[in-house]
Amino acid sequence: MGVRAQQKEKTRRGLIDAAFNQLSAEHGFSNLSLREVAREAGIAPTSFYRHFKDMNELGLTMVDEGGLMLRQLMRKARQRINKGGSVIRISTETFMEFVDSRPNVFRLLLQERSGNAAAFRQAVNREIRHFVEELTDYLIQNTTLERSLATIQSEAMLIIVFNAGAEALDMTQEDRKDLAERVILQLHMIATGANYMSNNNTEI
To answer: The domain 1-52: what is its CATH number?
Structure first.
């Protein structure tokens, strides 16, 4: 990659980071202005268009990046599981660490999942489907579940974890620990139910 291409990528990265930095519980993506994002990234507003067609393209890039970031983190968690440990506990703790360290990334996924823009909702739902598919594949490889049950278990677990993440954003560290323990118990209950249905050939 040439010097000019490296500089362009650095500026593009700066715009994405600037937009993430400006998100908060009260200040969602729809409240961001191109001028504010460009100013924090250290470029002129007109230079923004060399990197993104408009703010929507920037936002969709952020959604894709946020989803990929979280999926990569959970893959690393599963690698830790292979070395020993509870899949549910390690995955839950890893997810809570992500919410704690990158709250604005998770906040974007959460806010835009039910936002007004169809393109953003579709992008977030696409990321969620990726999560479900990866978790389903993991369950099939490591349990006796058929795909239909593994998919339902994955969907249920994701709903619980995402809802817990939304609560965790406004909690103290101590409250987050208590929440994580409740989530771990809930996920164990779902896994136990799925295994029972699988072992007893219970029809869905």
So the answer is: 1.10.10.60
Q: Is the pLDDT of residue 201 over 90?
A: no
Domain boundaries, the chain: 1-52, 55-200
Angstrom distance (rounded) from CA 93 to CA 58: 30
Token pair in block for residue 126: 């696409």
* Chain CA centroid to CA 196, Å: 29
H helical segments located in 102-172: 103-113, 118-142, 147-168
What phi, psi does 132 have (nearest 5°)?
Answer: -60, -45
Cα separation, 56 vs 96, whole angstroms = 28
For the domain spanning 55-200, the CATH number is 1.10.357.10
Q: pTM of the prediction?
A: 0.86
